[in-house]
Structures are given as C-alpha cells and as structure tokens.
Hints:
The protein is α/β, with parallel strands linked by helices.
Amino acid sequence: xxxxxxxxxxxxxxxxxxxxxxxxxxxxxxxxxxxxxxxxxxxxxxxxxxxxxxxxxxxxxxxxxxxxxxxxxxxxxxxxxxxxxxxxxxxxxxxxxxxxxxxxxxxxxxxxxxxxxxxxxxxxxxxxxxxxxxxxxxxxxxxxxxxxxxxxxxxxxxxxxxxxxxxxxxxxxxxxxxxxxxxxxxxxxxxxxxxxxxxxxxxxxxxxxxxxxxxxxxxxxxxxxxxxxxxxxxxxxxxxxxxxxxxxxxxxxxxxxxxxxxxxxxxxxxxxxxxxxxxxxxxxxxxxxxxxxxxxxxxxxxxxxxxxxxxxxxxxxxx
Length: 319
C-alpha cells in the first residue's frame, strides 16, 4: 500500500442523500452508468476512509447530478445535494471537502447557486447535460464566473444521448463514461474555454477518459485541419497538459504512462469512486500507484495528496 507516512486524499468520493435518491426515483432514474444506485450514508463514508487509510475525501454528486430540463426541478435537486454536502463537511471539516452542485443546464439558476456556494472547495459538473456538452456557447457565462473565482472544477461523465451505446453486453460506464469525458474536453477546447478561462483548474474523472491516449492525435489533426489559433492559440497540447487527471479505476501501467507522459505527476490525483466502486477498487488503486515503476517517492506523494494540497491549500494540513 506504499509508505505508511504518505497522506492519501480521495478526490472522487460520492454522496447520495436520501431525498436526492427519492427524487431520482420519481424522475425514473434507477441506475447510473448501467449500475444500480448504491446505498450511502455519511457514517459509511467516514468508516470507509478509516478502513482504507485515507485521511480525507472531496465529496461530489455522480451522474446525473442535478440535471433536469425543468429548471425548478434542477434547482431543487441542487439544493438537496448542496445542503447535504454542507452538513457532512460541517460535521467533519478535517475529513471532508465538497464540490458544489449546480442546476445545469440552467445558466441563470447556476450563477445564482454559485453566489450561494462560497464555502465549497470547488464545483462539480457533469460532462454533458441532455444533448449539450460543456463547451456549448450557452454555458460560457458559468465558466467566466468560475474563472473569476479561480475555481477547481471536477468533471464527472454520464451516459448521454450523444453516447453510442450499441447492443453490447457490457456495463455502459465501462467505455461510454470515457467517451463522454473525451467529447466534453474537445467541446471546451474548441469553444476556446481553456484559453479564455485560464484560472479554472479542471479535474477530469477516470484519468480523463481517452484524452491521455489520444492527445497527440487530437493535437495533430486539429492543428492541421482547423484554425486552431482562434481557439487554442498556444497550441492544442498546451491546454491538454494543463488539465488534472483523477485516476480512479484507471491505474494500469499503460494508463498511468499515458497520463504521466502528457501532464506529469503534478497533474495526477487519487480517487476511489466510492460508493459506486467497492472499497477494493480504491485499495487496488493505492497499490497500483505505489507499485508504478515510473513514479519516484516524490511522484507518489504528489498523486496521493500533494497535488490536492496545491490546488486546495486547506488540505495541506491534513495528515
């Protein structure tokens, strides 16, 4: 599991408030990414951290977030989630942080929610809302406000209508989550958000989908075939290298080599995806990071918690 004096912070840890689950059921949502919605309590999360040797966790909402095309419903879902996040973090501020939930795709309501969420550590977004990725022009005011706040933004994928879910007997999240993240990164890049909003720190779940593997191809093709100077004037690779990659369920040597080659150890964060992933997944992730031969001890400390402390200085004191 690595050196016992290494501090581990889980940046991909979900909550599922009872009222939120009830609302999802009312809306006909009974699974996420093809998997049954798991049980969750704050007590269970705390006990999981203790058993797993994790000093702290950043809490967020998984897919579908607070998504609803009805603005009132989206606002209510976000309110339920943010209230629960406040309660859990308030009860254990040394063990938990939180990414606020926005009632996207409703821009004015999301801006209003942001004004009420100054106490959160960052903001959590879903990679796509209905048939719109995050680079949709309508969402630009949200990113401009996040940039003004120098926000840390955690992006979690979903299974949207843009996913190509053919009739293959596998869990949809196995590949579609990766593609959803990839597509939304491309949409943000193409919309010029990465260039226009340089003070946002974007954290991509699951090691950024296919971005680390395809980064060279993406840069080559976009710079040959599109007027990239208008949306990525510093070069496509420059912006992809600025992203942060959270590595839950994506800690094979091949994947870590791709991310390390693209962004370096200073851009990789540790996560578990609890409770959607069982505790054994987080344990394996720790072992994989500890055993990865291309990491030195400093790299492992950065991935375990050092990079989180740099992004969110209040976690520097967590040990």
